[in-house]
Amino acid sequence: MTSNEIVRLAERVATEAHLGQFRRGGSVPYIEHPRAVANRVGDDPDAMVVAWLHDVIEDTGETAESLLEKGIPRHCVEAVTLLTKGTGTDYDTYLERVACSPLATKVKIADMLSNLSDQPTPSQIRKYAKALLRLSPPEQE
Question: Three-class SS of residue 127?
Fold first, then answer.
Protein backbone atom coordinates (compact mmCIF):
# COMPACT_ATOMS: atom_id res chain seq x y z
CA MET A 1 0.00 0.00 0.00
CA THR A 2 1.31 3.47 -0.84
CA SER A 3 1.52 6.27 1.71
CA ASN A 4 -1.45 8.01 0.09
CA GLU A 5 -3.52 4.82 0.26
CA ILE A 6 -2.73 4.43 3.95
CA VAL A 7 -3.76 8.04 4.61
CA ARG A 8 -7.05 7.42 2.76
CA LEU A 9 -7.54 4.21 4.77
CA ALA A 10 -7.01 6.13 8.03
CA GLU A 11 -9.51 8.77 6.90
CA ARG A 12 -12.07 6.06 6.07
CA VAL A 13 -11.54 4.25 9.40
CA ALA A 14 -11.88 7.52 11.34
CA THR A 15 -14.97 8.59 9.39
CA GLU A 16 -16.70 5.28 10.07
CA ALA A 17 -15.59 5.16 13.73
CA HIS A 18 -16.79 8.71 14.51
CA LEU A 19 -20.06 8.37 12.56
CA GLY A 20 -22.90 9.88 14.58
CA GLN A 21 -20.56 11.77 16.95
CA PHE A 22 -20.57 15.56 17.16
CA ARG A 23 -18.24 18.28 18.45
CA ARG A 24 -19.12 20.77 21.16
CA GLY A 25 -22.56 22.22 20.64
CA GLY A 26 -23.78 19.13 18.83
CA SER A 27 -24.02 20.59 15.33
CA VAL A 28 -20.58 19.87 13.80
CA PRO A 29 -19.81 16.24 12.92
CA TYR A 30 -16.87 15.03 15.02
CA ILE A 31 -14.88 13.96 11.95
CA GLU A 32 -14.26 17.64 11.20
CA HIS A 33 -11.84 17.72 14.16
CA PRO A 34 -9.55 14.89 12.90
CA ARG A 35 -9.78 16.48 9.42
CA ALA A 36 -8.57 19.81 10.86
CA VAL A 37 -5.73 18.10 12.72
CA ALA A 38 -4.68 16.21 9.58
CA ASN A 39 -4.67 19.49 7.67
CA ARG A 40 -2.31 21.01 10.28
CA VAL A 41 0.46 18.38 10.08
CA GLY A 42 1.66 19.22 6.59
CA ASP A 43 2.68 16.68 3.96
CA ASP A 44 3.85 14.03 6.42
CA PRO A 45 1.87 10.85 5.60
CA ASP A 46 2.56 9.17 8.95
CA ALA A 47 1.43 12.27 10.85
CA MET A 48 -1.66 12.48 8.65
CA VAL A 49 -2.56 8.85 9.46
CA VAL A 50 -2.10 9.45 13.18
CA ALA A 51 -4.01 12.75 12.99
CA TRP A 52 -7.02 11.08 11.39
CA LEU A 53 -6.98 8.33 14.04
CA HIS A 54 -5.81 10.23 17.13
CA ASP A 55 -9.16 9.96 18.97
CA VAL A 56 -10.52 6.63 17.73
CA ILE A 57 -9.17 4.42 20.52
CA GLU A 58 -10.27 6.88 23.20
CA ASP A 59 -13.70 7.77 21.78
CA THR A 60 -14.92 4.83 19.67
CA GLY A 61 -14.92 1.05 19.65
CA GLU A 62 -11.63 0.84 17.76
CA THR A 63 -8.60 -0.71 19.46
CA ALA A 64 -4.92 -0.87 18.62
CA GLU A 65 -5.48 -4.44 17.46
CA SER A 66 -8.41 -3.52 15.19
CA LEU A 67 -6.37 -0.72 13.60
CA LEU A 68 -3.53 -3.14 12.90
CA GLU A 69 -5.98 -5.67 11.43
CA LYS A 70 -7.33 -2.97 9.10
CA GLY A 71 -3.84 -2.32 7.75
CA ILE A 72 -2.69 0.72 9.72
CA PRO A 73 1.11 0.49 10.15
CA ARG A 74 2.33 -0.51 13.60
CA HIS A 75 4.39 2.66 14.18
CA CYS A 76 1.29 4.78 13.48
CA VAL A 77 -0.86 2.66 15.81
CA GLU A 78 1.81 3.04 18.51
CA ALA A 79 1.60 6.85 18.16
CA VAL A 80 -2.22 6.72 18.32
CA THR A 81 -1.91 4.64 21.49
CA LEU A 82 0.42 7.24 23.02
CA LEU A 83 -2.16 9.92 22.20
CA THR A 84 -4.89 7.95 23.98
CA LYS A 85 -4.99 9.45 27.47
CA GLY A 86 -7.19 6.90 29.15
CA THR A 87 -9.03 7.30 32.42
CA GLY A 88 -7.05 7.84 35.58
CA THR A 89 -3.96 9.13 33.78
CA ASP A 90 -2.58 12.40 35.08
CA TYR A 91 -2.31 14.99 32.27
CA ASP A 92 1.36 15.76 32.98
CA THR A 93 2.19 12.04 32.90
CA TYR A 94 0.28 11.77 29.63
CA LEU A 95 2.27 14.67 28.12
CA GLU A 96 5.56 13.08 29.18
CA ARG A 97 4.52 9.89 27.39
CA VAL A 98 3.56 11.83 24.23
CA ALA A 99 6.85 13.77 24.35
CA CYS A 100 8.79 10.51 23.94
CA SER A 101 7.55 10.19 20.35
CA PRO A 102 8.25 12.88 17.73
CA LEU A 103 5.31 11.57 15.67
CA ALA A 104 2.85 11.67 18.59
CA THR A 105 4.20 15.08 19.63
CA LYS A 106 3.68 16.55 16.15
CA VAL A 107 0.07 15.35 16.07
CA LYS A 108 -0.66 16.42 19.66
CA ILE A 109 0.54 19.95 18.92
CA ALA A 110 -1.71 20.05 15.82
CA ASP A 111 -4.59 18.67 17.94
CA MET A 112 -4.19 21.36 20.59
CA LEU A 113 -3.96 24.12 17.97
CA SER A 114 -7.17 22.81 16.44
CA ASN A 115 -8.86 22.74 19.85
CA LEU A 116 -7.71 26.29 20.55
CA SER A 117 -9.36 27.45 17.34
CA ASP A 118 -12.70 25.91 18.39
CA GLN A 119 -14.08 28.22 21.10
CA PRO A 120 -12.00 26.93 24.03
CA THR A 121 -12.86 27.76 27.62
CA PRO A 122 -10.38 29.82 29.68
CA SER A 123 -9.42 26.60 31.49
CA GLN A 124 -8.71 24.84 28.18
CA ILE A 125 -6.62 27.80 27.00
CA ARG A 126 -4.44 27.56 30.13
CA LYS A 127 -4.17 23.77 29.83
CA TYR A 128 -3.17 23.85 26.16
CA ALA A 129 -0.78 26.78 26.60
CA LYS A 130 1.11 24.85 29.28
CA ALA A 131 1.10 21.68 27.16
CA LEU A 132 2.28 23.52 24.04
CA LEU A 133 5.20 24.95 26.00
CA ARG A 134 6.05 21.44 27.24
CA LEU A 135 5.89 19.79 23.82
CA SER A 136 7.31 22.53 21.60
CA PRO A 137 11.00 22.27 20.77
CA PRO A 138 13.25 24.93 22.31
CA GLU A 139 14.00 27.86 20.06
CA GLN A 140 17.46 27.96 18.49
CA GLU A 141 19.52 31.05 19.16
Answer: helix
